[in-house]
Each structure stands twice: as C-alpha cells, then as structure tokens.
Amino acid sequence: MAITSLAVLSFKTAAEIAADIAQFAPVPALAPACGILLGILRCCERVGTNKDEILQLRDRCLNLVRIIWASSEGLGPSKLTIAMDQCCAVLTDVQVKLERWSKLGSVQAFLRQKQISDDISEANTKLTVCLDELKLTALFGFHSWQADFDICKARDHGEITARLVDIAEKMDELKEAAQLENEEIRKFMAVMNQALDQLGAGDARHTTLATGIYRLQQESGVLPPTTALKSNVHVRRIGRYPVGGGPKCDIWEGQWLENEKVALKALRNSRFPPKERKRFQREVNIWRLVWEADKGKYILPFYGTVTDDGPYPLLVSPWQANGTAIEWVKKNTDDIDYIKLVLGIACGIRVLHDWDTPIVHGDLKGENILISDAGEPLLSDFGLSKILEDCTGTPFTQTKGISDSFRWFAPEIFHSGKLTTSSDIFSFSMTALELFTGMPPFSHIKQPPQVLIRMERGERPEKPTDSLVKARGLDDTLWEFLEKCWAQDPNARPSIQEVIQELTPPRYPLDTF
Length: 513
Hints:
The chain has helices at 14-22, 31-46, 51-70, 72-102, 106-111, 113-134, 145-158, 160-168, 171-178, 182-198, 204-220, 274-283, 285-294, 325-331, 338-353, 384-392, 413-416, 421-437, 448-456, 467-471, 476-485, 496-503, and strands at 228-229, 235-238, 244-245, 249-256, 260-267, 304-306, 314-318, 369-371, 377-379. By secondary structure, the chain is α+β, with helices and mostly antiparallel strands. It has 4 domains: 14-137, no CATH class; 163-226; 227-289 and 311-319, Phosphorylase Kinase, domain 1; 322-503, Transferase(Phosphotransferase) domain 1 (Transferase(Phosphotransferase), domain 1, Orthogonal Bundle), CATH 1.10.510. Strands 1, 2, 3, 4, 5, 6 and 7 form a 7-stranded mixed sheet that branches. A hairpin with a 7-residue loop joins strand 6 and strand 7. Residues 1-8 have low confidence and may be disordered. One of its GO terms (biological process) is cell surface receptor signaling pathway. Residues 164-191 form a coiled coil. GO terms for molecular function: ATP binding; protein serine/threonine kinase activity.
C-alpha cells in the first residue's frame, strides 16, 4: 500500500511491489528478506478471500523492510544483521500463514474469512511490535494500521455477495464445495442463503445464487440448513389455482430455487397466529432429521415451510410425478409388485418407529404415501396430526377434514386421543388393503362416522373375493396376518419388525430393504 494513500486505500500492483523489492537487492543483509517478501507476494495472489486485508498486510511487510533499509547506514553491519534477523522471523510467520491460506479452496477460504481476518490482525500487531523493539523511526502511517485495517475488513465484507455470485457461477468450485464435510457444506449454504435473502427476486444475482445453492444441493445430497422458507426467495407458487388436494389441504405447484418443480401443500386446518406458526416450523423440523437419517430411501424429502404466502402454512417437498400410492395403483394396476410396495411402506414405518423416541405417523393411508420416479413408496406427513394438535390446541380427532381418515384409524384413538406405534400398525393394515383392492377400507359404507361405529363394535373389512386381488398377493396367509394387524386389542398387534418379516419372502432378501 502506498504510504501516502492509506485514506483512499489504494494498493500497488504485484508488479509494482516486485519492483520495490528489487530496490533492496544491492544490500546483502536484506537478501533473505527479499526472498521472503517475494514468497509473500506470490501467496497473496493465490488467496481467494479477505483481499484488501491481505494487500494491506503485504504492503506493511514491505514497509517494514523499507524502514530498515532506510536506516541501514546508521545501524552499522552488526545491528543491521540483528534487525534483519528479527524482521525475517516476523515475515516468515506471515509467509507461513499466507501459504496455509493459499492452499485452501475458494469455498474453504470463504468459510474461514473470520479466522483469516483474525490471523491478519495478529500479524499486523507483530509487525508493529517488531519495529518498536528495533527502536527505528517509522515511516508516516505505519503505526496507524488499525483504522485502515477496519476499512479493509469492511470492504471485504461488502464484497461477500459478489464473491458468492462468482462461486455460484463456477461449477468446478461448487463441485469442490460438495466434497467438504456435510457440516461445512451447510455453513456455506447458510451464507449463500443469507445473501439470497437480501436480494430481490428480480435481481439477476438472485437467480445465480439460487441456482448455485440448488446445484450444490444436487452435487452433495445435502439440503440447505434452514427449513423456514420465504416466498419468492426460496420457493415461489406457480399458477392461480391448486392442482390437487383433499378435505384437509390444497396442493399447488411451485418452483424451488428457480430450478426444481415442487409440491406446496397448504394445510387448510392449520390457520394459527404468528407465534404458533414459528412453533409449527420448529416442530416440522423432525421431518428433515428423519429424511437425513433415512437418506431419502423411504421418506419423502422435506425442504421446509413457507408462512408468508397466504393464510395457511405451505409444506414444500419435491414434486413426485407418479403421485400418491393410491393414484399409482389405479393407473398401473397390472404393472405393480404389490407385496414389494407394501413392504417398502412397512420399511418406511420402521424408520419412524426405530427412533429412540418412536415417531408415530398418525395418518397413514395411500393418500399420504408418494411414489418416487423409481416407483418406490415415500412416506409423508408423519406426525403432522400431533404437530397440528400441539400448535392449534384442538384435538386432532376434532380437526376439520379428519373424518376422511376414520377408515384407517384404530378405534382406540377416539377413546384415548393418543396415537401409538400400535395404531400405526392398524393403519398400515388398512392401507395395505386399500392398495391391494384400489378401494378405501369399508368402501361400501358412504359415511366415515358409520365406519368408526362399526369398528368400535369389532367389525372389520370383508375379505375380498376378486381373484385379481389374490393374484396381486393378498392370499389367505397375508389376509390372516392383516387380521392380526387390525386386532381390537392394540397389544395383540405385531410390531413393525414382525410385519416386515412376514412380508419378506425369499425373493426379497431382508437386507435389500
């Protein structure tokens, strides 16, 4: 840095610095320092972040040598040697730090900006201490580095968005980021997300950053850390009308990070105040944790919730073109391995029940199971009934539209009001029947409350007589097992592990599920 131009923070070019270093060459005692300075100069060109702070440090290193050079005649040979030894020790420390920083990839360096800044501040202090110990007359401005360092730091911070956009545009740098540890990836995504939040949707940089986050997600398999999403920042609704839904929700089409088609599920029975909306967002984070543990094999990926786009919260998940499980079996009646389908559902339930504190799905039926592009079942909306009950204060059995699920509910739920792993087993058996037949349980009864009354009396669905249903795998043996699953006594029902063992014939080795 030119000493007279600190106020405007004007830095010399690398070529100009190299020319300055060459001035010291005729003085033999300064030769070691010249070599170190050239090493510092090369490293400065390779560090990808904290640019202004690094350039200021580079110039102060040069100025320290310049001060000693200017004082060389007065020092004499022996004192000059001592002075240069002390100087070289400090310069070497700076070079070592710079070399370490220069070996970091651009994303790693970006994540370590604060650490690098702290190291630079420490190095600047050592330069000042070195000069004070030598008792040499400093050039103007050498000791007033702190104010200019703060300016450099602020300017570096102000260029964060530009640097992020630059990284987001380069696929090789995103691939480099995807090789980091998952926690590092999340930290970088969090920084990108913060910048994304500050840019308007019409800003071209917004699209670039959103695409960068999406590509990093695809390369790494790691979802952005925040699940509290914002409309027109992370996701935007497409179209004026919902494209599907049911008694409890509307399904809208949306776009995730400007690149991926997603489903936005608007929960019509969940209109609650802002305070409870925040609680709702915290509660549904369990979906993300379960998905990450499952790696998306049996659990629908969950991107987050949007609470600033209409009166109802929107649940955001990848669009599944094959639709729900019940839609899938109706469209592909003859091409489905039904045993494998219900086995996959059972494996998804095992993911939930195997947590230290078992997670109860609570609303298991064909409508709440999505089918992936590979034709595999993915569980969604698990625990949603309990979450809504906690947030609204209304028992889930009394919420609007819940009667639509009566056909799948275990009868004891309406007495205890509690969802259990045993009630999930009951619902699983009803779901299996639904998928084998393509019809809801008790399809001959129109009114859901009537179904509930009959089940409380101990009545159960009649055994299908259609030969096609039997050909799909619902034979006498499986029917008898389903009867165990919907036993009136919850304690008499099998565990999910026993369900999986029952459904696992030799052609499906258990370790494949």
